[in-house]
Amino acid sequence: MLEEIEEKIRNCRRCELWKFKTNYVPGEGNPNAKIVFVGEAPGREEDRQGRPFVGNAGKYLTEVMERFGLRREDVFITNVLKCRPPNNRDPKPEEIEACKPFLIEQLNAIKPDVIVCLGRHSAKTIFELFGIDFPGISKVRGKIFEVERWGKKVKVVAVYHPAAVLYRPQLKDTFEKDFAKVMDLAKRKEVRDTTLSDFF
Ligand code: URA
Asked: Which of 15, 35, 65, 159 has its CA 20 to 30 A from that of 114?
Protein backbone atom coordinates (compact mmCIF):
# COMPACT_ATOMS: atom_id res chain seq x y z
CA MET A 1 0.00 0.00 0.00
CA LEU A 2 2.67 2.50 1.02
CA GLU A 3 4.77 1.26 -1.89
CA GLU A 4 1.96 2.12 -4.31
CA ILE A 5 1.73 5.62 -2.86
CA GLU A 6 5.50 5.94 -3.12
CA GLU A 7 5.34 4.90 -6.76
CA LYS A 8 2.75 7.60 -7.43
CA ILE A 9 4.95 10.17 -5.69
CA ARG A 10 7.93 9.15 -7.82
CA ASN A 11 5.90 9.88 -10.95
CA CYS A 12 4.34 13.10 -9.67
CA ARG A 13 4.24 16.28 -11.71
CA ARG A 14 1.32 17.90 -9.93
CA CYS A 15 3.29 21.06 -9.24
CA GLU A 16 6.52 22.57 -10.55
CA LEU A 17 8.79 21.30 -7.80
CA TRP A 18 9.66 18.03 -9.54
CA LYS A 19 11.69 20.08 -12.02
CA PHE A 20 14.03 21.38 -9.32
CA LYS A 21 14.44 18.28 -7.19
CA THR A 22 17.25 15.73 -7.29
CA ASN A 23 15.19 13.02 -5.59
CA TYR A 24 11.62 12.64 -4.47
CA VAL A 25 11.43 12.18 -0.69
CA PRO A 26 8.28 10.12 -0.04
CA GLY A 27 9.04 9.28 3.59
CA GLU A 28 10.23 6.17 5.38
CA GLY A 29 9.71 3.98 8.39
CA ASN A 30 7.42 1.37 9.84
CA PRO A 31 4.22 0.85 7.78
CA ASN A 32 2.50 -0.15 11.05
CA ALA A 33 3.88 2.77 13.00
CA LYS A 34 1.81 4.09 15.88
CA ILE A 35 3.51 7.47 15.56
CA VAL A 36 3.90 9.45 12.35
CA PHE A 37 6.13 12.53 12.23
CA VAL A 38 5.27 15.07 9.56
CA GLY A 39 7.78 17.74 8.59
CA GLU A 40 7.54 20.56 6.09
CA ALA A 41 9.58 19.69 3.02
CA PRO A 42 12.89 18.06 2.15
CA GLY A 43 15.99 20.21 2.55
CA ARG A 44 19.26 19.97 0.64
CA GLU A 45 20.53 16.76 2.24
CA GLU A 46 17.11 15.08 2.06
CA ASP A 47 16.90 16.00 -1.62
CA ARG A 48 20.36 14.53 -2.18
CA GLN A 49 19.64 11.26 -0.38
CA GLY A 50 15.92 10.89 -1.08
CA ARG A 51 15.28 10.38 2.64
CA PRO A 52 13.45 12.59 5.17
CA PHE A 53 15.20 14.35 8.03
CA VAL A 54 18.79 13.31 7.36
CA GLY A 55 20.39 16.79 7.42
CA ASN A 56 21.27 18.78 10.54
CA ALA A 57 17.66 19.16 11.69
CA GLY A 58 17.15 15.45 11.09
CA LYS A 59 20.23 14.54 13.08
CA TYR A 60 18.91 16.56 16.00
CA LEU A 61 15.44 15.00 15.67
CA THR A 62 16.94 11.51 15.54
CA GLU A 63 19.11 12.25 18.56
CA VAL A 64 16.13 13.43 20.62
CA MET A 65 14.07 10.43 19.49
CA GLU A 66 16.84 8.06 20.50
CA ARG A 67 17.23 9.77 23.84
CA PHE A 68 13.63 8.75 24.48
CA GLY A 69 14.31 5.20 23.33
CA LEU A 70 12.58 5.54 19.98
CA ARG A 71 14.25 4.38 16.80
CA ARG A 72 13.51 5.85 13.38
CA GLU A 73 12.51 2.36 12.21
CA ASP A 74 9.73 2.28 14.82
CA VAL A 75 7.95 5.34 13.47
CA PHE A 76 7.08 6.76 10.06
CA ILE A 77 8.68 10.04 9.02
CA THR A 78 7.43 12.10 6.11
CA ASN A 79 6.83 15.67 4.99
CA VAL A 80 3.95 17.72 3.67
CA LEU A 81 5.91 18.27 0.44
CA LYS A 82 7.74 15.37 -1.15
CA CYS A 83 10.06 17.57 -3.25
CA ARG A 84 12.51 20.20 -2.06
CA PRO A 85 11.49 23.81 -2.75
CA PRO A 86 14.40 25.69 -4.35
CA ASN A 87 16.73 27.18 -1.72
CA ASN A 88 14.47 25.77 1.00
CA ARG A 89 11.93 28.52 0.52
CA ASP A 90 8.56 28.18 2.25
CA PRO A 91 6.09 25.87 0.52
CA LYS A 92 3.53 27.71 -1.62
CA PRO A 93 -0.14 27.07 -0.81
CA GLU A 94 -0.69 25.54 -4.25
CA GLU A 95 2.24 23.16 -3.71
CA ILE A 96 0.76 22.06 -0.40
CA GLU A 97 -2.63 21.54 -2.06
CA ALA A 98 -1.05 19.53 -4.86
CA CYS A 99 1.00 17.33 -2.55
CA LYS A 100 -1.46 16.93 0.34
CA PRO A 101 -3.33 13.96 -1.17
CA PHE A 102 -0.14 11.88 -0.83
CA LEU A 103 0.12 12.70 2.83
CA ILE A 104 -3.56 11.85 3.32
CA GLU A 105 -3.04 8.53 1.54
CA GLN A 106 -0.01 7.76 3.68
CA LEU A 107 -1.91 8.53 6.88
CA ASN A 108 -4.89 6.46 5.73
CA ALA A 109 -2.58 3.55 5.01
CA ILE A 110 -0.73 3.72 8.34
CA LYS A 111 -3.64 4.79 10.56
CA PRO A 112 -1.37 6.01 13.35
CA ASP A 113 -2.44 6.67 16.94
CA VAL A 114 -0.29 9.77 17.23
CA ILE A 115 0.56 12.37 14.58
CA VAL A 116 3.40 14.73 15.41
CA CYS A 117 3.53 17.91 13.34
CA LEU A 118 7.04 19.30 13.07
CA GLY A 119 6.78 23.05 12.61
CA ARG A 120 4.10 25.47 11.55
CA HIS A 121 3.59 24.46 7.92
CA SER A 122 3.06 20.87 8.90
CA ALA A 123 0.85 21.83 11.85
CA LYS A 124 -1.29 24.18 9.74
CA THR A 125 -1.78 21.52 7.07
CA ILE A 126 -2.55 18.69 9.48
CA PHE A 127 -4.76 20.77 11.76
CA GLU A 128 -6.82 21.94 8.77
CA LEU A 129 -7.06 18.37 7.58
CA PHE A 130 -8.49 17.26 10.92
CA GLY A 131 -10.70 20.31 11.43
CA ILE A 132 -8.67 21.67 14.35
CA ASP A 133 -8.36 25.43 14.71
CA PHE A 134 -4.81 26.65 14.04
CA PRO A 135 -4.09 30.02 15.67
CA GLY A 136 -0.30 29.62 15.21
CA ILE A 137 2.45 27.22 16.19
CA SER A 138 3.41 28.94 19.44
CA LYS A 139 -0.25 28.76 20.58
CA VAL A 140 -0.78 25.07 19.83
CA ARG A 141 2.66 23.54 20.40
CA GLY A 142 2.79 20.91 23.09
CA LYS A 143 -1.01 20.66 23.32
CA ILE A 144 -2.64 17.35 22.70
CA PHE A 145 -5.63 17.37 20.36
CA GLU A 146 -7.82 14.34 19.91
CA VAL A 147 -9.73 13.52 16.74
CA GLU A 148 -11.85 10.57 15.64
CA ARG A 149 -10.25 8.80 12.70
CA TRP A 150 -10.03 5.28 11.44
CA GLY A 151 -12.56 4.17 14.05
CA LYS A 152 -10.44 5.28 16.98
CA LYS A 153 -9.22 8.31 18.87
CA VAL A 154 -6.12 9.79 17.28
CA LYS A 155 -3.85 12.28 19.03
CA VAL A 156 -2.43 15.23 17.11
CA VAL A 157 0.46 17.19 18.59
CA ALA A 158 2.52 20.03 17.12
CA VAL A 159 6.06 20.85 18.18
CA TYR A 160 8.51 23.44 16.95
CA HIS A 161 10.43 22.48 13.84
CA PRO A 162 13.81 20.97 14.79
CA ALA A 163 15.52 23.32 12.31
CA ALA A 164 13.95 26.30 14.13
CA VAL A 165 15.30 24.88 17.38
CA LEU A 166 18.81 24.63 15.95
CA TYR A 167 18.52 28.20 14.71
CA ARG A 168 17.13 29.46 18.02
CA PRO A 169 18.66 27.34 20.80
CA GLN A 170 16.42 29.04 23.37
CA LEU A 171 13.58 26.88 21.95
CA LYS A 172 15.43 23.67 22.78
CA ASP A 173 14.02 23.26 26.25
CA THR A 174 10.43 23.75 25.06
CA PHE A 175 10.96 21.41 22.10
CA GLU A 176 12.36 18.65 24.27
CA LYS A 177 9.64 19.05 26.90
CA ASP A 178 6.99 18.86 24.16
CA PHE A 179 8.75 15.81 22.81
CA ALA A 180 8.59 14.22 26.24
CA LYS A 181 4.80 14.70 26.10
CA VAL A 182 4.71 12.93 22.76
CA MET A 183 6.62 10.05 24.26
CA ASP A 184 4.23 9.98 27.17
CA LEU A 185 1.38 9.54 24.71
CA ALA A 186 3.26 6.81 22.93
CA LYS A 187 3.82 4.96 26.16
CA ARG A 188 0.14 4.89 27.04
CA LYS A 189 -1.36 1.48 26.78
CA GLU A 190 -3.76 2.29 23.97
CA VAL A 191 -1.02 3.40 21.63
CA ARG A 192 1.50 0.70 22.45
CA ASP A 193 2.31 -1.93 19.92
CA THR A 194 4.79 -4.76 19.98
CA THR A 195 7.47 -2.72 18.27
CA LEU A 196 7.21 0.18 20.67
CA SER A 197 6.69 -1.90 23.79
CA ASP A 198 10.12 -3.41 23.23
CA PHE A 199 11.49 -0.02 24.09
CA PHE A 200 9.41 0.98 27.06
N1 URA B 1 13.01 19.81 7.27
C2 URA B 1 11.82 19.23 7.03
O3 URA B 1 10.77 19.80 7.26
N4 URA B 1 11.83 18.01 6.52
C5 URA B 1 12.93 17.33 6.26
O6 URA B 1 12.83 16.19 5.80
C7 URA B 1 14.15 17.96 6.54
C8 URA B 1 14.17 19.19 7.04
From this structure: 15
pTM here?
Answer: 0.94
Measure 39 CA to ligand 1 centroid, in angstroms. 5
* Best mutation site among 28, 79, 95 for ligand 1 pocket (most ligand atoms within 8 Å of CB): 79
Domain ranges of the chain: 2-197
Tens-place pLDDT, residues 145-173:
999 999 999 999 999 999 999 999 999 99
CATH of 2-197, one of 3.40.1190.10, 3.40.470.10, 3.40.50.1820, 3.90.1210.10: 3.40.470.10
**DSSP calls for 101-170:** HHHHHHHHHH--SEEEEESHHHHHHHHHHTT-----HHHHTT-EEEEEETTEEEEEEEE--HHHHHH-GG
> Which atom of ligand 1 is closest in space to residue 119's alpha carbon?
3
